[in-house]
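Dear colleagues,

I hope this message finds you well. In preparation for our joint manuscript, I am sending the Double-GTPase 1 domain-containing protein (Sphingorhabdus profundilacus) sequence together with its predicted structure, so that both groups work from identical material. I would be grateful if you could confirm receipt.
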Amino acid sequence: MKNRTLIMVGGPDSGKTNFLARLVAHLRDGDGKLRAPDLPDDIQYVEEALAYLMKGEFAPRSHNTTDELSGDITLDVREVDTGATATISVPDVSGETWDEVARTAEISRQWLDRVQHADGALLFVRVLSELNVTPLDWVNTAPLLELAGPNPAYAIPSQVLLCQLLRLLQENLGTGLDTRPRVGIVVTAYDLLDTETRSKGPLSFLRDTYPLFAGMIDNVDDVEIGVFGASVVGGELADVAFQNVYLEGDIVESGYVVDDTLIPMEQVGDISRPVSWVLQFQNST
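The corresponding structure tokens are as follows:
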């Protein structure tokens, strides 16, 4: 079977590192569709992130420079039901790198090659991130901008940056593939949403919170898009009561994924579900 390559894309504080650490624990010790019993030795930063989760803390956000590669991991994965195997390469670039790519619409030749040779991607969006930038209220903000001068500086809204990243994937992902590449949108920290919002699904959340980005998802034809909600531990570790319960259990039994590619949508404990879907394994659902 040909090697299948997956890239992870997301700005700072998008939840990539904690998701990857939790995914590695699941592939090694979990009972999901995918297994990776023999993990490589050169995954120090993932092991460090996993160590945080094991002691009841989320891994802190990395502060790598825009030129620094925060990890290049190769996982030999086997699909449990069919025995199908694949080598998944996960070049996990720092959030600052992808943020700069989205802002400038420029990407190095090295990383463009990675995107073009990938079979699929996971694009991460974090719920209630402190780094989220909402669009300006132009009606009420206009007078203030006039006082600021002819060229006021303001932050680019998060949904615009997400659109830029999705456009990069749309135009370059999977060059030469004989099938449409897939992009899984992973809404992380899904447990932070209120019960009603969670019940409507991650795609509904995106439509309410990032309408421009959701509109692009609905109208992209070059790639197939699936939306997932993810909670790597199943709750808020800052809640002492939840943390105590979590620490008494097994990390591979915590957390969940909400699969919004299905009708009706489904909540599963298999944290590898978005990976299986993106890589188009036969039994990804």
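For the figure legend, we might mention the following. Confidence is low (pLDDT under 50) at residues 65-70, 136-142, 148-153. The domain at 4-278 is CATH 3.40.50.300 (Rossmann fold).

With kind regards,
E.M.
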